[in-house]
Design a protein that fits this description.
Length: 210
């Protein structure tokens, strides 16, 4: 019988991307790279970067564009270009696999790692994979991360996330995640006032809040 563990093991073996990333995720020119990171941090950054790209490769072939209903609900918080670019997958009968490098990370004392199998969704660059049924709240949160990936660049996003996680030991305290939760809460509050997520992310970059 083909188990969830078998599926995850097969997915880990897939290395090639199914769509080019270079033009979709230009390198950031606004936020300087981290310097003086430890060997352990550098290794963790490499692991996470590779994981994000491999998972995008795995799910991209099955991912679908956002429907007009969801685009309408998310605009004008997100640009039309981003809403056209992002693809989504709603899993049925399975969940996102636990990253294979987690075992090594836990052996080094990192026991509060993000539990991807229990999250509503995970954003793999421009592909959002939903463990649960897609809702406006979960979609908005996921799209904030898609904007962060696009503006910061994949490498810079990964550096910031890993460095902050290793400092705080809790992914909810990582500024990238905290901003996504904050903007999602703002989106869910009854209000006629709209805002641009792209502008909010650009402002955080300019103010050095990541």
């Amino acid at each position: 019988m083909y188990t969830h563990e078998d599926f995850c093991a097969a997915a880990d073996a897939r290395q090639e991307l199914h769509a080019p990333l270079e033009k979709k995720f230009p390198p950031s020119v606004q936020s300087p790279p981290l310097s003086g990171v430890s060997e352990q941090t550098a290794k963790a950054i490499q692991y996470v970067n590779t994981y994000l790209r491999q998972q995008r490769a795995q799910y991209f072939p099955a991912a679908l564009p956002l429907g007009n209903h969801h685009k309408s609900a998310m605009w004008p918080y997100f640009s039309a270009g981003l809403l056209d670019r992002v693809r989504v997958v709603e899993l049925e009968g399975q969940r996102i696999c636990t990253p294979s490098f987690y075992a090594e990370a836990r052996s080094l004392g990192f026991n509060n790692l993000p539990e991807v199998t229990h999250m509503d969704s995970v954003t793999f660059l421009d592909v959002v994979v939903f463990n649960e049924v897609l809702t406006e709240r979960s979609l908005f949160h996921a799209l904030v991360h898609a904007v962060q990936f696009y503006i910061l660049g994949v490498e810079r996003y990964t550096e910031l996330f890993v460095e902050q996680f290793m400092r705080t030991k809790n992914h909810f305290n990582v500024p990238l995640e905290a901003q996504a939760f904050s903007l999602t809460s703002q989106f869910m509050r009854p209000s006629e006032e709209k805002f641009s997520v792209e502008e909010q992310v650009q402002r955080w970059v300019a103010d050095g809040l990541y």
